[in-house]
Amino acid sequence: MGWDQELLEVVDAHRTPWATALAEGLMAAGQPTATYVAATGAVLVFAWLFKAWRPVFAALLASVIATGLAEAGKEFIGRPRPPADLALVPADGFAMPSSIGALTAGAAVPLMLMWWRGGSRTGRAMSALLGLGTVLVGVSMVYLGAHWLSDVVAGWLLGAALGVAAFLLLERAPARTERHFRTADD
Fold it and tell me: Is-contact 23 136, C-beta < 8 A?
C-alpha cells in the first residue's frame, strides 16, 4: 500500500477547486437511485433505436454482476479506505475492489466492443468517450480520497473482464427472435 499512500499524498497536495468541484459533481451524480434508473432507461432506448439488444443486455448483466462481486470482494479482502485526513468525502465500508470501477467498466466494455467492432469513426469515438468516462469516474474516486488507485484498477479489471465475457457469451447465443420472425419465403 506504500505507493497508493504516496500517490494520494501527492494528489492531496495538488488539489484545486475546479478539479474538486468536478470530482464531487461526478460522485454526486452517481449517488441517487434515479441516476441508475435513468441510465437503464437510456440504454434500453439506445438498444431499441439501434437494434443493439445483445450488447446492451451484456452491459447491464456485466455491470450488475461486477458490482455484486466487488461488494463481496470488499468484505472478503477487508482493505480499509484511505484515511480521513487524505479524503475530501466520507466513505464507509471496505475499499478493494472499487464497486464503482467495476460497475462503470462492466457497463462500458460491451458497448465499447460493439462500437469498435463496427469499425466506423463514430463508433471508435463513442468507444473512446465511454472509456474516458469510465477512467474519469475512477480517477475522481481516487482524487476525492474515497478509494486507493489500486482499488479502482482492481474494479476496472473485474468489470472489464465481465464485460468482455458477457459480450462474447451473448454474441454467440442463438438469435431466438430472428427465428420467430422469419417469413414463409425465408
Answer: no
